[in-house]
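Can you make up a protein sequence with its backbone structure tokens?

===
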Amino acid sequence: MQKKNGILPILALSAAFFSPLSLFALVSPRPAETIRLGSTCTDRVFAQLILSDSQAYKAATENLLSYFKNELMKTRLFKDTYGDIVWDDISEEVADSVDIVRDRKMEKERYGDKQFAFTGFVFDLYAEVAIDKATGVVMKTIIELE
């Protein structure tokens, strides 16, 4: 096997040692048990399950807390509104205040049903989070101070 530009063709080498299923599981970003094989798949050999509701809710909650701590608290408007409070002083209160629900209407109208949408409140401030259903990537986070 020859190197091209100093790079050994990994996929060709890997294909010689692994079956197609094990090769896919090695390069897949999701665990192998989320791979679903089926006779109804006509255009693709493998189909991955989309993010579950509970996984999306957990990701949305974690993202809101991270955004609150690492972005919102550093803004001038937050400091003008709440003073010089630090995360350690309010972290439990903020975490306990997260109250979001899935907004299926927003999912269809704004995101063409391709993203989870969560709306609600954190620290008595309106919040929205949008998460891609297939990848789990957070697409949008909003916490309104005004």
Notes: The mean pLDDT is 75. The first strand starts at residue 35 and ends at 36.
